[in-house]
Design brief:
- The chain is mainly α and 62 residues long.
- It has one domain.
- It is built from two helices and no strands.
- It is flat and about 50 Å long.
- The termini are far apart.
Length: 62
């Protein structure tokens, strides 16, 4: 297979991946159907991590 578009592969269960990258990737076109339980867990972790980062930034004044 070939495509004119750039394709990125991201493991949504990668704990070291930035929550903002995972949020953005979740909006893309999924080529493989995700396990719903795993997708829910990842969405919950990403939301929590992103809010924690935003909270810390607001405390530091950045």
């Amino acid at each position: 297979m070939s495509t004119e578009r750039q394709i990125s592969i991201l493991r949504l269960d990668d704990e070291d991946e930035s929550p903002f990258v995972v949020q953005e990737a979740s909006k893309g076109i999924h080529l493989v159907k995700a396990d719903e339980d795993t997708l829910y867990e990842v969405a919950h972790r990403v939301l929590h991590d992103a809010e924690e980062i935003r909270f810390r930034r607001s405390l530091s004044g950045k």
